[in-house]
Amino acid sequence: MSTSAPQKIADKTRGQIVEAAEKLFAEKGFRAMTLRAVTKAAHVNLAAVNYHFGSKTNLMRAVIQRRMEPINAERIERLNSLVAEHSPEPLPLEAIFEALFRPLFEHATTEKGNDHTFMQMVGRALTEPADFMRNMHREFFAELSRRFLTELKRSCPELSEQALQLRFYLSVSTMLGTIIEQVRLESISGGKLSGKDLDKICDELTAFVVAGFKQA
């Protein structure tokens, strides 16, 4: 069944609002991102924002959902494929972290190069008020973390629960820091390395994290 004309208009308006909110959130953060600024950037009125989202928090949820749901779905798909391929044996650590890291880095790249708005958005999300991000983490990342921790535990049975969770936290933090701060790579390396090569950076990140995770 084809989508009706009014529905197409509504979907377009919703998309404009989410895209405008994402850019403003990336630039200013949640607290400084006003709905008035969103309506101006999206070329809509406040009634449209209230109709589609109801609140600023719901709008922010839609922004994160649009970006993270496809990434997380790909992560789970890759992990499921690995489990099916290696069953009943535990998964290689390299494969687990490749499944976790690669989708994020691939989605941070566009035909025109690195998606700096997305990278800024990730960085902003990490500095937002604790309650705000705690709720978002619970919805978008808690189950994902549980799935990956389950496979990491099978692959590293010698690690205590505390060590496993701490190393996973450090691994994720390294991933996020890398995607946010990749622009510094060129200055740190004196121009010998480029932050634009996210594929290569992801390869090195995976090797680095796996080596640290394996340490007794």
UniProtKB/TrEMBL annotation:
Residues 34-53 bind DNA. Gene3D superfamilies: Tetracycline Repressor, domain 2. Residues 11-71 form the HTH tetR-type domain. GO terms for molecular function: DNA-binding transcription factor activity; transcription cis-regulatory region binding. Pfam families: TetR_C_30, TetR_N. InterPro entries: DNA-bd_HTH_TetR-type_CS, Homeodomain-like_sf, HTH-type_TetR-like_transc_reg, HTH_TetR, PsrA_TetR_C, Tet_transcr_reg_TetR-rel_C_sf. Keywords: DNA-binding. This is HTH tetR-type domain-containing protein. It comes from Coraliomargarita sinensis. The lineage of its organism: Bacteria, Pseudomonadati, Verrucomicrobiota, Opitutia, Puniceicoccales.
